[in-house]
Hints:
This protein has 17 helices and 17 strands. By secondary structure, it is α/β, with parallel strands linked by helices. Strand 15, helix 13 and strand 16 form a beta-alpha-beta unit. Helix 2 runs antiparallel to helix 5, helix 2 packs across helix 6 and helix 9 packs across helix 10.
Amino acid sequence: MAQLTYTSLDEVNQSHAALRAGYKSGKAKSIKYRKHQLLQLAYLLQDNKEKFNEAIKNDLGRSSLENEMLEIFVSLAEIKQSFDNVEKWAKPESAPLSLYFLTSPKIRKEAKGVVLIFVPYNYPIFLLMSPIAGAIAAGNAVCVKTSELLPATSSLLADLFPQYLDQDLYRVVTGDVPVATRLLELRWDHVLYTGSGRVGKIVAAAAAKHLTPVTLELGGKSPTIVDPKFDLKLAARRILWGRFSNAGQTCTAPEYVLVPKEGEEALIAAMKEIISEFFPEGTSKESFGRAPTDAYFARVKGLLDTTKGTIVSGGETDPSTRYIAPTIVRGVTLDDSLMTEEIFGPILPIVVVESFDEAIEIINAREHPLALYAFTSDIGLKDTIFDSTHSGACVHNDVLMHVCDGGAHTGKYSFDLFTHLRATMSVPNWMESILSARYPPFTARKVRQLEQSTMPSFPPRDSVYATKQQTFKWIIAAVTIISAAAWLILHPFTLF
Length: 496
């Protein structure tokens, strides 16, 4: 296994100070500079694609095809989107039209400052490149804390950053809990953490001491509802792809399936068939992903060992390589070990429900999931599921595909995440006569003047009735005006 050299605590302090100084230099205010750094970020990844494939293979056992599909290609697309749009995104915007339009109000897009990004182990490229592209485009200085669970990938990133990116503004820090703790003791202008809820609470509490804004992207048990009338082989193919990609270590992966009793047998049969198609020679321990550490392996295996459900496919494990086969478990109850916490491994529980209403009740009785998936050709049922539940995202007839188009750390959302919207206004001297009513002494005349210029008007309390009444009044007024105009045209001299 590759050895990872941790950043010392003194070096953490030095990096923080250097990034503060680099940000204060103002060089990142230049759009040209930002585009150059984004281009360097793209070439960092593109030039070293094979090195990243090798490193991730060493850390997680993932195949090159999975690495490139799930991380490298989408990361390059994210960087290119930021590169192409940074001028447009950074351009000041006009404020909504209001009483003060004469003051030329604008919203400036300014960097938040020096930001800290914690990169999780499961997607060490995409969950780094996507947010850092937005942070660079927004003009921030960035400190990246890589995962100590991935020694080869973290070492590679720490080695490549100084070769491609300006160390005055962009640095990598490596280490375990003591390093993360020291980072959280320092003041940042924004912190992005992706990972478990347990650690998320620690990050939020530490940031609160400095009143630092925090963005947390946490895991959860994302449910999948399957309508027995849907194409079950198609559903099985898409669900199992999402569940078993990256050996199940995806925060938005379908965590469990809710299916009515009448569809259970057919769905399981379809899933077995799809597994045979996915892995015609079996799930090779050399090509299928694995847990990053012995502790992670033991936790997932423990959930599988204690389930009261029935394994209908897979179930094999090998502690020497931290391998867990793609596994389907039926007969899982809500109090089962597989339903008590996020699995984060290649195990899919099947939970039978009596109705879709029961499925919705199960979802609503639990913490809001990061994603919710519904497979049905019945649009009414899809709308009912979406309207009756809460989740970070909801996807119809597919899984995972929303990740690249939504979320706080992708595309323009990433730019916005690390951007301060700064209101600006320029008030000319000649407006003093208009603004004079705001000054003491507050006379009745000034109050009336302020009311006339600033007090909004509202319809009557019964807005539906008010709308109808208002429409009727307008019709009567229009008819009256038209009638009067017609009368004048026909009798032009009557009034004289």
